[in-house]
Write a structure and sequence with these properties.
single chain, alpha/beta, Immunoglobulin-like, 6-stranded mixed beta sheet, 4-stranded antiparallel beta sheet, 7 helices, elongated, disordered N terminus
Length: about 350
């Protein structure tokens, strides 16, 4: 057989055709290798150890159905975890900067763990929700109509409706607290319409705060273990306005204030300031002067955090609801919040939508 002679039974393959077939084979092999590499990478990633946040409720099983929201907090940022009715959250490998973990749900006060040290190995952080924080409210009625007549049963029912509405909103917004009747159902509304010592405050102006506090403390018309709300004819000439005095556990509301305005003033006693945040600022409970007070309908998780963990909230100054080692001063700005020790999440922080 001559050198390079085609063997018997084989057809000669043109050089060009052989080259094309080789190129196609190489492409096929390349695609197979890519597919195998992708599958291997996916398998490896699916087996990457994940950190976990495990939740429980103090003294009882957590009721089924309620959603839990988890928040990871670092000095200059925060990370919101998708809410779930589950009590175990896989949060992936967590950046060590997130040294605080919080959890929120509607039937418990928020839980927090500070000083969390995430490691290269999978870590489980366990949080236990405390019970709801009770906020005793005492209402002192100086006026509940323009004539400052005696308190009627209809007026009492209207104030109870305010309390019920406020508690519904606090529950929906996972604020971790409920308003209770200081001294019980028969005593939490006190008729002071004929009290001569308080007549001068019926038409209240904001520079009377110190005088009001002095008088009510002297005559025993301020409870030290409750939030005290004084209902008057007008606040700065408006029957629909309220004012939170810079005096511990004291708020003043005009007789015609809408229930969300009363709740707004109670928010001030929990350290919250007037706020204009979110896509619809007037929908936040702490928006100062909405055209319609009925639009106030939500708190942010940043606000709920401040109610529970700031040093000047009545939950802590009056009721001592939280461990003092967890408290801090969140200040007024996001820069203040980041500089707090430990840091606070920004005021506008949301886990659930603002509506």
């Amino acid at each position: 057989m001559a050198l390079f002679e085609t063997p018997v039974g084989y057809e000669a393959m043109p050089v060009q055709g052989r080259t094309i077939r080789i190129q196609l084979a190489l492409k096929y092999i390349t695609l197979v290798c890519i597919a195998l590499l992708t599958a291997a990478t996916t398998a490896i990633l699916s087996q990457t150890p994940s950190d976990t946040v495990q939740l429980s409720c103090a003294a009882a099983m957590c009721p089924a159905g309620a959603e839990n929201g988890v928040l990871l907090v670092a000095k200059t940022t925060q990370r919101e975890i998708e809410p779930s009715s589950q009590l175990s959250f896989s949060v992936g490998p967590v950046n060590p900067a997130y040294t605080q973990v919080l959890a929120f749900r509607e039937d418990r006060a928020p839980s927090i763990q500070t000083g969390v040290a995430w490691t290269p190995h999978p870590k489980t952080v366990t949080l236990t929700y405390p019970e709801l924080a009770e906020v005793p409210l005492q209402i002192w009625v100086l006026c509940l109509d323009p004539a400052c007549g005696a308190v009627t049963e209809n007026m009492r029912r209207a104030l109870e409706t305010f309390r019920a509405n406020a508690n519904d909103l606090l529950t929906t917004e996972r604020a971790g607290m409920r308003i209770s009747q200081a001294g019980g159902a028969a005593n939490w509304i006190s008729d002071e319409t004929q009290n001569p010592s308080l007549t001068e405050f019926r038409d209240f102006v904001n520079d009377q705060c110190s005088a009001l506090n002095r008088v009510v403390s002297m005559i025993g018309k301020k409870k030290p273990d409750a939030v005290n709300m004084y209902l008057v004819r007008t606040v700065d000439n408006e029957p629909t306005s309220g004012y939170r005095c810079p005096v511990e556990n004291l708020a003043v509301d005009g007789w015609a204030t809408f229930w969300t305005t009363k709740l707004h003033e109670l928010g001030h006693t929990m350290s919250l300031r007037d706020a204009g945040i979110g896509k619809q600022p007037q929908n936040n409970v702490m928006f100062s002067m909405p055209q319609q007070p009925a639009t106030r309908q939500y708190f942010t998780e940043g606000q709920v955090f401040r109610m529970h963990f700031t040093v000047d909230s009545s939950l802590n100054t009056i009721f001592s609801r939280r461990d003092p080692s967890l408290l801090r001063d969140c200040g007024r700005t996001n820069a203040d919040a980041g500089s707090a020790v430990p840091p606070c999440p920004p005021l506008s922080t949301l886990i659930w939508p603002e509506d």
